[in-house]
Amino acid sequence: MKTATIADTRSHLSALLDEIAGGGEIVITRRGKPVARLVGEPPSTPFDWSDLRDWVVAAPAAYGLSVAEMREQNLL
């Protein structure tokens, strides 16, 4: 784990971000004491619409028709 002062972070932010994107981690220090940690953002997973469709179909209707039933009856 690499450390960088606030001044180093200001002047070398692009290089530090490249290092973080490659899986690195940086601790920013102020007067020798850690004040922040920079870590990479976890990769996002694409939303799978079929999961939502399966949930809507499987969910019991609390009041009246379910969304799936409304679609079948052309109400939506």
Give the topology.
Layout: E1 2-5, H1 6-11, H2 13-21, E2 25-30, E3 33-39, H3 49-58, H4 67-72
Parallel strand pairs: 1-2
Antiparallel strand pairs: 2-3
Q: What are the defining features of this structure?
A:
76 residues; alpha+beta; YefM-like fold; 2 domains; Antitoxin
Q: From the alpha-carbon coordinates, what is the Rg to the nearest angstrom?
A: 24 Å
Number of domains: 2
Can you give the mean pLDDT? 88
Cα distance, first to last residue? 54 Å
> Please, how many helices?
4
Taking the sheet with the most strands, its summary is: 3 strands, mixed
What name does the CATH topology of the largest domain carry?
YefM-like fold
Give the overall shape, derived from the CA principal axes: rod-shaped
Which stretches are poorly predicted, pLDDT < 50 over at least 5 residues?
none
Order of helices and strands: EHHEEHH
Function: Antitoxin component of a type II toxin-antitoxin (TA) system.
Protein name: Antitoxin
InterPro entries: Antitoxin_Phd/YefM, YefM-like_sf
Family: Belongs to the phD/YefM antitoxin family.
Compact description:
The protein has four helices and three strands.
What does this structure look like?
By secondary structure, the chain is an alpha+beta fold. It has two domains: 2-39, YefM-like domain (YefM-like fold, 3-Layer(aba) Sandwich), CATH 3.40.1620; 48-76, no CATH class. It is 41% helix and 22% strand. The protein is built from four helices and three strands. It has helices at residues 6-11, 13-21, 49-58, 67-72; strands spanning 2-5, 25-30, 33-39. A three-stranded mixed β-sheet has the order 1-2-3. A hairpin with a 2-residue loop joins strand 2 and strand 3. It is rod-shaped, with a radius of gyration of 24 Å. It starts with a strand and ends with a helix. The mean pLDDT is 88.
